[in-house]
Amino acid sequence: MDAAVSEKTLRRKSLYAAEFLVWAGEQGLQEIDVLPPSEATLCNFAASFAGKLAGGTAKAKLSAVKSWVQKRGLAWNGRDNLHNTLNGVERRAPSSSFREQRPPMKKEHLSILFDKLNLTGTSGIDHAMAAASTGCFYSQLRGGEILPFSSDPNEYNPNSLPTVKDLGPANENGDRKLRLPKTKVEQTRGEEVIYSPQPGCTSPTRAWRDHIRVNQLGPNDPLLGYRNNSGELKVLTKSVFLNRCNQIWSEHGIPRMTGHCFRIGGTTHYFIQGIAPDVMKMLGRWKSDAFLKYWRDLESLASIHLHRHHAQQSYSNRLQKSGTRHRYPPH
To answer: Packing angle between helix 39-47 and helix 80-91, nearest 10 degrees?
Structure first.
């Protein structure tokens, strides 16, 4: 069960389970009362979050308790009453518990970034920046799937992060596949993403090609390795990448972006291009329809798709009228 989730998620679940035990102790409950906990106990624990936490956070805490109980081979007693209690907690969630929606990255933001980067072949880190930005945007990557925490190549783990050889050659259409050894969802098997050539200066296939060439990277080097001014191999980190992006964008009045903004921005970009949601779900490696909540540019999406619908309807009507006027007699 533990192998299916990341270490970060495991730590969070352990903290939530410990929180439940502390709460149980404060209520005067004994070991027999929590191994396993009755539904009444679970409902009381859930109700303690009413007016304090968002419903999703309360559900996550109860989910952690459920994992903790089942891991010990005990029955989980959460049923309809617990479900109803959690719904009540969600309805009473304070406004302070809701985060503002993250702004989406836009293709225009990439263009601004590229204008400020030195992409003449003399700055290794800037070419790595270009590759990382287009990579995260066009393939809807999570930043942690390609960007490490350390710039030291000796600390780079190829079992968790891709190397140059994980980026496949271009096919006849110019598409390239990138194998991700480990992702948030697929901790052991990894996943693949696809890069397709895009119009303009922000094409990811060109950015990757130039990055690898300028930084003279070998097959086993970190995918986002780069040569510093001394020719020493370093690795672009997530913090350096985001700080540099936001420094450039802040000069143009663009709000601060997180790594996730690239992923949701890429999703919105493809929606605006008219890509079907089921195709988007596959390309973005979304495991549920939760990605639909990341439709950030609703005004543009509505305008484009409504105009497209009306145009198709008008075209169909013209075809029907044309067929009526030119109906031929049977042979």
So the answer is: 0
Count of domains for the chain: 2
CA dist 305 → 56, 66, 276, 283, 310 (Å):
32, 43, 11, 20, 9
- CA–CA distances in Å: residue 205 to residues 119, 171, 265: 15, 11, 18
Chain-centre distance for alpha carbon 92? 28
CATH number at residue 244: 1.10.443.10
Model confidence pLDDT, tens digit, residues 233-291: 999 999 999 999 999 999 999 999 988 888 888 888 887 777 777 776 777 676 666 65
Name the residue with tokens 């009526």.
Answer: 324
From the list 303, 257, 12, 234, the residue with the least C-alpha distance to 110 is 257
Is residue 49 located within the same domain as residue 173?
no
127 and 7: one domain? no
State whether 10 and 120 are in the same domain: no
Beta carbons within 8 Å of 57's beta carbon, 6+ residues apart? 49, 97
CA distance 135 to 108: 15
Whether 77 is in a domain gets the answer yes
Taking the alpha carbons at both ends of the chain, their separation in whole angstroms is 70
Residues 136 and 200 in one domain: yes
In a domain, 188, yes or no: yes
pTM higher than 0.90 for the full model?
Answer: no
What is the distance between the alpha carbons of residues 129 and 243, in angstroms, rounded to a whole number? 11
Q: Locate 275 and state its tokens.
A: 């890509």
B/e letters for 259-288, b = 16+ CB within 10 Å, e = fewer, are bebbbbbbbbbbbbeeeeeeebbebbbbee
